[in-house]
Amino acid sequence: MIQALFIALSAFGLFMALGTVFARNLVHAALYLVAFFFVVACQFVLLEAEFMAAIQVLIYIGAVAVLLMFGIMLTRNITGDETTIVTGQWRLLGIGVAGAVMIVLFLGINGFKPWTDLGVRPEFPVTAESTTPRGQAILAMTPTVGREMMTRYVVPFELAGLLLTAALVGAVVLAQYDRTDETSAAAESPQP
Amino acid sequence: MSQQIPLTWFLYFASAAFAIGLMGVLMRRNAIGVLMAIEIMLNAANINFIAFWRYGDAPAGEGPLTGVMMALFVVTIAAAEVAVGVGLILLCYRRWRVADVDEFDTLSG
To answer: What is the pLDDT of residues B26-79, one digit of tens each?
Structure first.
């Protein structure tokens, strides 16, 4: 039952990923990408990491997809959607390289015995008085994540905050609209 | 539940998604499309982190949430990368009036 659910979900997710890659219209590609993000969130639920599923929906669907959508809207190609993806032999080359990578990864996973033997995940008693820290972390992931962030991972946490601040300031500075700069750049640069 | 999903199924899904993302990075001409394909690849890596965390043994002295924390930081980096990437693409679009990566050839010899 759960296996059938996984297979259906994964097939849908891979189809959506292919749609993201192959859709000529970039807005359609972004919508396919939202569906793929949602499938990934469902996979996190299947892996009993509901907190990560919530984070996935909030950050990827709520923020990243919207940001990409704005990027698409603001950089709309005047010549239409015909140049969003390569054609001809380059397309064949891309498919070939990606297929080769996928085959190598599949063979690697298939041939590595410690992974293929892991058919059953470690069980934890589903009670509030679960003894192992792993079981408690799975049952109450959000407080555990908060505690880990403030104790063991406090340096990466602060670094992530610094990185996000720098990215925010950098994005604002980069995207700042400057009319005089644009006109002078348009005057000096040759037409594409 | 009687029948569980084996670890390898998650790994197969993640590697297939990674290959599709790689295909997108190689084939897309639009820079935003390349960013979207990179997001697919990062998500595939995140599934691997969570799957190995859930199926593997808990390492001693590393806390109960190793894979989840790693995936969280990957999500953070991805968000920052998209913000800066979209800003850069916007800047390039204003300068050259195109958003295709093969048109940005000012530095080519």
So the answer is: 998 888 999 999 999 999 999 999 998 888 877 777 778 888 999 999 999 999
SS3 A81: coil
Residue A108 tokens, joined = 């690697």
Nearest to B20 among A98, A106, A120 (CB): A98
**Rounded distance between C-alpha atoms, residue A4 and residue B59, angstroms:** 31
How close is the nearest chain B Cα to the Cα of A39, in Å? Answer: 10
Which among A136-145, A155-164, B48-57 has the top mean pLDDT?
A155-164
Which has the closest alpha carbon to A172: A60, A67, A72? Answer: A67
B35 in contact with chain A, both atoms CB, cutoff 8 A: yes
Q: Does residue B34 sit at the A interface (CB-CB below 8 Å)? A: no
B97: left (phi over 0), alpha (psi -120 to 50) or beta: left
Q: Do A98 and B1 touch (CB under 8 A)?
A: no
Token pair recorded at residue A143 = 């407080």
